[in-house]
Every structure is written in C-alpha cells, then in structure tokens.
Design brief:
Layout lengths: L1 H29 L5 H9 L7 H10 L9 H4 L2 H10 L9 H4 L2 H10 L9 H4 L2 H10 L1
Helix pairs in contact: 1-2, 3-5, 5-7, 7-9
C-alpha cells in the first residue's frame, strides 16, 4: 500500500513538473527568450540547478521543484523556506536538518497539513503542529 502511495505521489510530482515546464515555456516565449525550450530543459535538469538564484526562482514558482535543486541548496534555509511557502510538500526534499527545524516545518504545515509527514519525528509528535496539520487537511 505504501509503495502505491509513493508511486501516486511521484506521478503527482511529475505532473506538476510538466505543468510548471509548460507554464514557464509559455512565459519565456511571450518574453521572446531565444531557445526557450532548450534553456528551460537545462534549467529544470536536477544536475543543473546549482545556482542559488536559479533555485530560488524555481522554488518560488513551484515549491516541489526543490527536488531538482542541488543537495547543498536543499540545506539552504532560505531556499527551503521559499519552497515550503509555495508547497508544504516540498519539505520532503529538504535536508534532514531543515526537516527538524520547527520554523521551516511550521511554514510547511501551514501551507499543507500533509507536510507534517515529512518532518523529523520529534516534530511530528508536536501537539501544536498536529493541530495545525489537522486544520489544514
């Protein structure tokens, strides 16, 4: 059952990434950016989002693109805060140290109660966070 949930979640995220790419491609074409599709594909490649400004831009548009950000930036508090502000589910891609950061988890849970699932165990058991998560659904 858990494997099915993981697969459903992966499909959900893949669909979100595809939607994000389509939206960004439309914006880039409207702005007359040359080679828009090639640039977008390079930008959305997990190996390529190593630049902090690009990572911030990406996660502000779609928080779950945090999964395509270089590992070192997944430990960057500002990058992760921006990601979870847009999508609480982005918490699952954050560095473990930030999954244990109460402020980061609080922001994520306020955006999506489901995000509590990705918090460090001690925060999953926090009564205040549990109440907020239940209210958010």
């Amino acid at each position: 059952m858990e494997e099915e949930e993981d697969e459903d979640e992966e499909n959900y995220h893949s669909a979100m990434i595809d939607e994000f790419k389509a939206d960004m491609l439309d914006i880039m074409r409207k702005d007359n950016i040359p080679d828009a599709e090639a640039k977008l594909n390079q930008f959305c490649d997990p190996e390529e989002i190593v630049d902090r400004d690009e990572a911030l831009f990406s996660v502000r548009q779609r928080g779950v693109t945090l999964r395509f950000v270089a590992e070192s930036l997944r430990a960057d508090r500002e990058v992760v805060l921006e990601a979870v502000k847009e999508s609480g589910r982005a918490l699952q891609y954050a560095d473990e140290s930030l999954q244990a950061d109460r402020e980061v988890v609080l922001k994520a849970v306020r955006q999506s109660g489901y995000a509590l699932k990705y918090a460090a165990e001690e925060l999953q058991n926090d009564p205040e966070l549990q109440i907020i998560a239940e209210r958010q659904g």
